[in-house]
Amino acid sequence: MTKGGALPKGFERPTVSASPSDSGVQEKSEEVKSSSKTITLRISKFNPEKDQRKAFHAFTVPYQRWTTVLDAILDVKSHQDHSIGVRYSCRQATCGSCGMIINGKPKLACFTKISELDSDVVTVEPMNNFPLIRDLAVGFERMFSTHKRIKPYIIREDSETSSGTKEFLQTPEDVEKYIQFASCIKCGLCNSACPTMTTDSTFIGPQGLAQAYRYVADNRDQGKDERLRIIDEPHGIWRCHFAGSCSQVCPKGVDPAMGIQLLRGYLLGYRK
What we know:
Layout: H1 20-34, E1 37-45, E2 55-63, H2 69-79, E3 99-102, E4 105-108, E5 121-125, E6 132-134, E7 137-138, H3 141-149, H4 172-176, H5 189-193, H6 195-199, H7 206-216, H8 224-231, H9 245-249, H10 256-268
Parallel strand pairs: 1-5
Antiparallel strand pairs: 1-2, 3-4, 3-5, 6-7
């Protein structure tokens, strides 16, 4: 380096200019920003420990065609109201954590795009038929307890790990009888949509009954009679009025209403 801080001739730093690709990225970013639309997001807020009643808070949120309701809620939580209570995890409709009422219907927030709602106002509330923790978060303890009570596992006297026991093989037809019910992610949307659960808090519910059918229909299982005794009770399978709303809201295409009817077939004796 020469006196005064100048670099010797031949060692000067080259001048860097923006490449056409860099300019394109910047233009694309500006284009995306300019194409953003906005919605009014109404979020139900209520903390049972300190609030007297539920209130809706409105926020203006930008969105793109791919923006989900969960994205919008988290945008508000990050930039406008840090206190919003919401449960979420995977963001890909697998964990079942972010169920809520969206514009009046039980849906997964991470699986619902704002652009598909066709509304300038999106209202989110906690799921029905669940105890409220705070804002959009509800308690799943009762649903999980009921799920556990119907024994959601293969019951056998032997096992695949027993000496001399081979793998329990099934034909495609055997698997077809129950496979859709194995897709349940325990999001609770079916229970939230169920009108019987609204009037009978001790009803087993479509989630538990559908999972009971999943194992009763599995020909590897030997616990059918035990499960049928569990669901054949005053607040069990006979409380279902076959409204079918549970099947309409399942994000995984499970049909709890059909499973309940098939279970009744076992109890009435025309299914073996």
